[in-house]
Amino acid sequence: MIQFYSPDILESRVLPESDSAHCCRVLRMKEGDEIFVVDGKGKRYRCVILEAHPKHTALEILSEETLLNHWKFEITLAVAPTKNIDRMEWLLEKIVEIGVNKVVFIKCERSERRVLKPERLEKVMISAMKQSLKCILPELVPMISFKEFIKSEEYDDCFKCFGYCSENYPRISFAPACPVGRNVVIMIGPEGDFTPEEVESAVEYGFKPVTFGENRLRTETAALYGVTATHVVNSM
C-alpha cells in the first residue's frame, strides 16, 4: 500500500503538489486508479483519481476509516538539536515510524544549534508517517527554551525524565522506571550535556535523571532509545 497525504482532503478533494507529482510522474498513476490518502489526523480515505495532474490531482472519496495510534498513552520527546541537522532528520524519521505523539526541540545553554527550519523537518515526518502506514502526524514544536519547556504545566501528570551522563548526580535506569500506560516525557540534552544548573532546575520541576545503559550515547541515539524502550516496556 502507498499512502498519500492531504491535510484538507475533505474540503479540497485534491492532492497537494508534492504528492501529485509523486503520484503522476513517479508512479505514473492515471484517471480511474484507486489510491489511499491520509489527513494526518487519524483518517485514511480510499479515493479514485478523477484527473491525474502533476500539480493538483483531483480525487473522489470512495470510503473512509479511522486509524488511531496503536499505543494508548502519550509520548513526548524533547531534544536539543544537534549541530549536524541530518542527524535530527534521521531521528525524526525513526521515531515517527516507531511511534511518538509530540516532538519538542529545546534550546539549552550548551546547544550548538539554535535555529531550525521546521518546514523541512515536517516533510521528513510526513514521509515517515506515510511510509509506516500511520494516519496521525505527530505534533512538532520547532524551538523553545529549556526553561519554558520544563516549567510547562501541560506535562504535570506525566512521567517526566531526562537523560544525564554525569555520575555526579544520582540516576535511575530508564526502562525499569518507565511506567506502564502512563504519559511519558523524555528530555535529551545537547552534545555537551545539560549544565549543572539545568539539571537542578529540571529536578526541581519534577524531572527524574535517568540513564540509558552503561555506554555514552549520541543525542539522537539516546532519544531513539528512550522512545523505543517506552514502547517495549508497555508491550510486555
Explain what this protein looks like in three dimensions.
By secondary structure, this protein is of the alpha/beta class. The chain folds into 2 domains: 3-66, Ribosomal Protein L25, Chain P (Beta Barrel), CATH 2.40.240.20; 75-235, SPOUT methyltransferase, trefoil knot domain (Alpha/beta knot, 3-Layer(aba) Sandwich), CATH 3.40.1280.10. Helix content is 33%, strand content 25%. The protein has helices spanning 9-12, 17-26, 85-98, 118-131, 146-150, 174-177, 196-204, 219-235, and strands spanning 3-5, 34-38, 43-51, 58-66, 75-79, 102-107, 139-145, 159-163, 172-173, 184-188, 208-211. It has a 7-stranded parallel sheet with strand order 7-6-5-10-8-11-9, sandwiched between helices.
* Helix fraction bin: 25-40%
Count of spatially separate domains: 2
Order of helices and strands: EHHEEEEHEHEHEEHEHEH
Q: Kindly report the spatial arrangement of strands forming the biggest sheet.
A: 7-6-5-10-8-11-9
**CATH topology term of the largest domain:** Alpha/beta knot
How many β-strand runs?
11
Top-tier CATH class of the largest domain: Alpha Beta
Q: How many DSSP H or I helices?
A: 8
Q: Let me know the CATH homologous superfamily of the largest domain.
A: SPOUT methyltransferase, trefoil knot domain
* Proportion in β-strands: 25-35%
Indicate the low-confidence ranges by residue numbers. Answer: none
Q: Let me know the largest β-sheet.
A: 7 strands, parallel
Shape estimate: elongated
CATH architecture of the largest domain: 3-Layer(aba) Sandwich
Quaternary structure: single chain
The overall pLDDT average reads 94
Gyration radius from CA atoms, angstroms: 20 Å
